[in-house]
Structure prediction request, 67 residues.
Amino acid sequence: MKKLSNIPWGWIGAFAGAVGGFWYWKEVGCLTGTCPIKSQWQTMVPYGALMGYFGGGLLQDVSPKRS
Prediction:
């Protein structure tokens, strides 16, 4: 059985963030095209992946570690 500390939370968070970034662009987005981040999916997906990677890293830091 894998320990929670061995799971690559950063990469799982990056994937979830990329999917979330695409979903956010698709559903909310920016209709006028003047928003620098939200107007194109090519910028929103990597931004979401980066935020998800950082969030996953935080989860890995707070997960219980066993010796």
